[in-house]
Design a protein that fits this description.
This protein is about 65% helix and about 5% strand. The protein has about 150 residues and is mainly α. A two-stranded parallel sheet has the order 1-2.
Amino acid sequence: MESMQQLSTDSIAERTALEPARPVANRIGRAVYLTLGFLCLGIGIAGYIIPLLPGTVFLLMATFFFFRSSERMYNWVLHHRWFGPLIRNYRAGHGIPRRIKIYAISLIVVTLAVSICLVASSLVVQLILIDIGVAVSTFILTRPTTEVVLNGA
């Protein structure tokens, strides 16, 4: 299984040759895509702070919207020090690094435990929180796992 093999940085770089941004020709369309890109970028960054909010998904969406609206923002997201390597790795089909999976699921468990014990007094709310935590954790665990991260992320 290729995702489990240790791939050299050179072979990963070859596989992730990124195409340049292709903004739409329509100025209104570019403005809409740019606005959606910034919205998804903000939610994506918040997702790395708020455990049940999927940060990577929104960063991937922001990348798409910037691809269609702004070459500068598209390149900024792809080459960002913290989340650029994760996006490039995911787009190349290499999945999510093991340490990120462990970190994300650990935060989900801690946040759910605190929320259930201190905030959610209703059994229904507690069960909904548990269901959300299980669903998000299952999603994370079912993505391909990689040990190799581009550019040392």
